[in-house]
Task: structure prediction
Amino acid sequence: MSVAQTHHGRFLGSRTPAPSGDARWKLVAATMRRHGYRADALIEVLHAVQGAFGFLDDDGLRFVAASLRVPYSRVYGVATFYQHFTLRPPGKHTCVVCMGTTCYIKGAQGLVEAVQDRLGVKPGQTTKDGRVSLLEARCIGSCGLAPAVVLDGAMHGKIKAEDLVGKVEEWMKHDS
Amino acid sequence: MTLEELQALAEKTRAAAAVAGRVVRVCQGTGCHSAGSDTVQQALARETKERGMGEAVTVMRVGCRGLCASGPIVSVSPDNLLYRSVEASDAPELAASLGGEPLERLRLPSDSPFFARQKKIALENLGQIDPESIEDYIAAGGYTALLTALASMAPAEIIQQVSVSGLRGRGGAGYPSGLKWGTVAKAAGAEKYVVCNGDEGDPGAFMDRSVMEGDPHRVLEGMTLAAYAVGAKHGFVYVRAEYPLAVSRLRKAIRQAEQYGLLGDKIGGSDFGFKVELRLGAGAFVCGEETALMASVEGQRGTPRPRPPFPAQAGLWGCPTLINNVETFANIAPIVRRGGEWYAAIGTPKSKGTKVFALSGRVVHTGLIEVPMGITLREIIFEIGGGIPDGKKFKAVQTGGPSGGCVPEKFLDMPLDYDSLVSIGSIMGSGGMIVMDETSCMVDVARYFMDFCTGESCGKCVPCRVGTAQMHRVLDDITRGTASEGDLARLEELCDMVRNTSLCGLGQSAPNPVITTLRYFRDEYEAHIRDKRCPAGRCRISQEAAA
Result:
């Protein structure tokens, strides 16, 4: 069964209808259009999908595959090869602990363990209420300020475990 | 834009800058930015305006000044003043001091060895110009090399200058750039590509990040010169997605250069055209390897393939492709502008010029430095870096990331270049330099890097995929105190196998951190195995093992 038959989305200019009427698909379609629907733009397009939706779901992967006319297996292969792409929705807040060498020798492992103990989730997991995701990064290149974390996209350098846990607790408390 | 128009614009921009007698530069590198330097800049702009200094003082944003740990850094010229850890609340006091007595409370001596011992070529514009202004770049002499070359140099002459300069690839392997350019130029094919490798994946490295963020036009100019030299019309900058600021600055720079006719068709009124596209990485260390990087640019899984054919013969879409690292491209415009001989006069006989290092870890002044090749590690760590903090003792310095090694104290006085580092089992690498003191356990460091390589192995070849995992298991056992005497021999055997039989550089060099720590810190391994003790007190030797 072709993608066009299984999804009843809006037509956005490509031959393939979007998975839903969600306006964010327009952003994705614009990226594909800019690259002329070329197969080599696959990673750029997956960035656009994840940028718009926060993660890559199966409908999105199939939509991209059909639009760029590449096999679904290749899209899935690329999406799972690269660490940056995630197939699961992230929590409302994200705490990324840098595990680069400098951060590591300056105690990043302790930061991970502190957050892990507080939240009861391991790196790569999200709390049951969907509020906070704990992630590890290979290196965010802020080695001059090690140990560093990225909280909801903002970098914090020379952070101590108790301060980090404090910030995470703020997220748990408030409905922010 | 022609060369005359470029020079006129440079003149005009410089004249406009000269009207404002005093320039306050606020570092907006990632480090300073995270410390709130954008609010500092706004506060300073507001304060100077409110004090009626609007005409006489310009407050501007600049790229990384290097001393990341003391950010936000603010400089004042022509007074040659440097201030550190400036906060928005300091703005009134700082603004009031302009033209008068310096604000001693925040002052950083500009003649400190951190700045005085450096020699800046690739980084010369960082901390000087606004990275988001092409006019600033042009006023600093930018794009002169490109337009002069297009007007009066044949492609072969550019390659000649790059060869004479002795420049070697700054991505780590140190392949002579002139030789590589010559191969691509000679390769047959109507379509050729130039690729800039900005996939700075080594943990502990942020040189390329700072260059892309702080002087994006320098990278584009270098790429365009390369394209003219080798006969390419199309180029890609491959940047890590983890560097959003670099991505947005490069995007902006490409747009600006296109508007000025410095990218696109008929550059500088010549018949030469060159287009650059940005490609984002997606978090795969192996994509720093050139064949894997090309697969990724083509939108595929970043797995390497055997070489030959080398990218110079068959690269992107099978076409001859020139791949160089960000820092390599950043050196091109000065070499073309000032001549290869000038560059070759700096450095050591076999490693010319300067090298940018990201100095971090257990050292007083962490940050970004550019030094002449041939400098010693001792000068870098103890003079520029200010030594080890908290009265601790130096143990090792790690160079070259997961592909490099740990250098012990006895080599601190060795002149630093590509070949000297290889001779002691490490590599220059892209320039990460992580200082470790007595609190770091070298077995744990080896385990850390092997964990990294196990996770980042792409899985295509068995020696790397399985071998790194096996090594990691042995190292893990050692750090837990559950290893036995035979494990060291097993580890050495694995190192040998993975190094000699892996497909690409990731696997071939993955054993380096283990080999160097085994060579220089064997006693630490033995203490874990025989005495069930971690000399640095870092490893969690299990109670059972210790008993």
Residues 82 and 110 of chain B are 6 Å apart (CA to CA).
